[in-house]
Amino acid sequence: MSSIESGCLEKIRPGDEERRLIWDMASALVREIDDSGFAKGMVVGSVARDTWISGDRDLDVFMLFDPSVAREDLEQMGMALGRDIATRFGGDIIEKYAEHPYVNTHINGFDVDLVPCYDVESASKIQSAVDRTPFHTRYIRERVDNLTGDILLLKQFAKSCGVYGSDHMTEGFAGYLCELLVLNYGSFEGVLQNAAVWTPGTIIDIEDHRTKDFDEPLVVIDPVDPGRNVASSLSSTKMFEFSVFCRDYLTSPSGDYFIIHKQPGLSREEFNDEIRKRGTSLYTIVFENPYSIPDILVPQLRRSLRSLENLLEKNDFRVMRSDCYMGSGRSVLLFELLDESLPPVVRRAGPPVWNRSNAEKFLKKHLGLTYSGPYIEGERYIVEIERKYLNAMTLLKSPEIFLSGLGKNVKISMEDHYSVHRNEEIWDENFSVFFYNYIRKESPNVRILQKSSGK
Amino acid sequence: MSSIESGCLEKIRPGDEERRLIWDMASALVREIDDSGFAKGMVVGSVARDTWISGDRDLDVFMLFDPSVAREDLEQMGMALGRDIATRFGGDIIEKYAEHPYVNTHINGFDVDLVPCYDVESASKIQSAVDRTPFHTRYIRERVDNLTGDILLLKQFAKSCGVYGSDHMTEGFAGYLCELLVLNYGSFEGVLQNAAVWTPGTIIDIEDHRTKDFDEPLVVIDPVDPGRNVASSLSSTKMFEFSVFCRDYLTSPSGDYFIIHKQPGLSREEFNDEIRKRGTSLYTIVFENPYSIPDILVPQLRRSLRSLENLLEKNDFRVMRSDCYMGSGRSVLLFELLDESLPPVVRRAGPPVWNRSNAEKFLKKHLGLTYSGPYIEGERYIVEIERKYLNAMTLLKSPEIFLSGLGKNVKISMEDHYSVHRNEEIWDENFSVFFYNYIRKESPNVRILQKSSGK
Question: Where in chain B is the domain with CATH 3.30.460.10?
Fold first, then answer.
């Protein structure tokens, strides 16, 4: 381990006092669950594996119920027990929902999740995804003894790279995935050396028990479930952002690769300057956040972005880039167009002329109503006719956007109200970080290269 | 035969006097060749087949040499004999060139070609394409007796449709192809009924002796050569223009389908009005006709059009339509663009990042010189950088056009000089018919439908 790495590790490894504090809290919660008689308590997550980063205040405590309990009963009893315990420890009660409901609470500065699950015999008998978590915890705990330092370094490194987290917004590396990578490659250094030369279709199967094929760019078979890819939510982009980050660190190691980058915002003036320089046409669609959880909404925002992009392209407005963002109260879809207005004439290809009935219908429809045509090109009728949408604003304000395939909740919110903005008028203080990241978009290694070269 | 058709036939079938005149001339030329002792004379073409249209003044007389004569000798003796005969009949001498040289002359108002060829035993032994012609003449002459009226009608019909002629400009139906279609389908009516339902890949093989596959839309196997498609130079567009022309005539027959359409021109005012209405950007490139024959130049013009279209599209200028024209002294390439100016920023995809050496070269090249990026999308680096050509005029005036794959002679002429014109400034009286056909482009059946509906 280099001095850079040991220096970093010193900062991020929890001290004895911190460790004692969190384990006192965790043990008390587990005892309370055990004493209830309804379920067994178990600490899971990075605290249980001793792989949490100093300062983290997340504590996951699972309530393991007997598999004979009916699903509804598990949900009801789990929530009741969670609420009861939270109250007894003086915490608040927030009901959250993953595959089934759980209690989130805040006690003595800790962010605690109290999650009911089934205490199944083996991972092959799980009834929902959360039942798998205790198996992950046991698997890692049994093998992690000499590797916790390497895991901590990797997590910090991935955070600095912006690829830590398997939620839909990040599409990066889950904590469990980081742990498995270290187990597999033997050390932090081993992970970096291997990840630096990853290609799409890389497969890691520690237990050598894979039962099927996957088409994701990185496949890491779950040691406790041969049919599951732990890296299934990792996007190709994040996989390779990480890969080049590893590569560049190995070439010229620096503490910068372990520092969490605070994303700056862009000022209104900077933003307007950039827009003018680019000369493209930027449009945003803004609406109230739909009522749902981020892990459902973010994929919907992305889907809506794609479908509106298709609508724009279908109408000849070329989209150079697009992006979306879910802010604190409102969401935004952003499109950067090469074209915002188009000539009145549009070319349309008809059916092959040898398809007589369709060809004659097409001919009849357009006869006398064209700029040019109908003429024949190859085997088809072509007409040059009046274009429907002469500019992007008209299109984006038309009801046609609701037929384009928006995400369900996005559509509901937009049907209620949405606004379309153009160039300078899209500025919004609340989106300044999003705008910064859009305009100054660069891969994480580039950020560090630029910094070290003083550019 | 309908009254429309018999009425038409009366006008286009040569009378006894016209027939006597042309045959007197033809026989005298043949006798002269025979008497020379060097070659045998033979009338070929539509006169020989009795399928020429009244008023046509084209007479093809072949000079058949023994196959033992060397190629150079054939060319020399052929030209000498041709010149000698032309002079003796008081005609001028124009040297022309197909696969080898021949003499073109004008005698008593006839346009006479005197063409040397080899008198081979069978079509399988031909040494150049012209040697095949006597076999075509014999094949048709032996089978045409009761069908000359149908053939004349078909030729006139195809002329009216604008699809008669197998030269590169027309890409239509050769006279021999018309004759074979009538032979195959039995009558004018038969051709129309069948052509009306043609689909791409239609095959006609009268002698049922095809020896290979063809991928042209219409395949008519040469009865005297099983490895040749008589319709190889017919474009898909012309094939289907003819098909719908047949269809519409059968639905509502009219004399209009036999009248040769005189192409009008467009006035400067009409042209400028149309340009303004369309709102597109029209550009022309004009240069002196390169020194060569049309059958070589026209394909070169088309190739140049395609390559410049690719150059424009590659630089993000979308071409809605394009066309080219070889005028009497100058040629023109015309492009109708959806875009004539573009934003300063352009997006470029780099290599996959896992291709380390290329990826790092790309990164190094662009670092600090981008609007955005390098960032990673999927597995590739992307940059948004300075666009090279902000408007179409700059591109079309740049030396880059000479690297785009222009036709050889076109390139030579353009390297000497060319001019680029835009919108109203492209007007040129000499191209008014070309402009008319471009703007009012419609298939031949549409022209007649519009006329009959009074639109």
Answer: 3-132
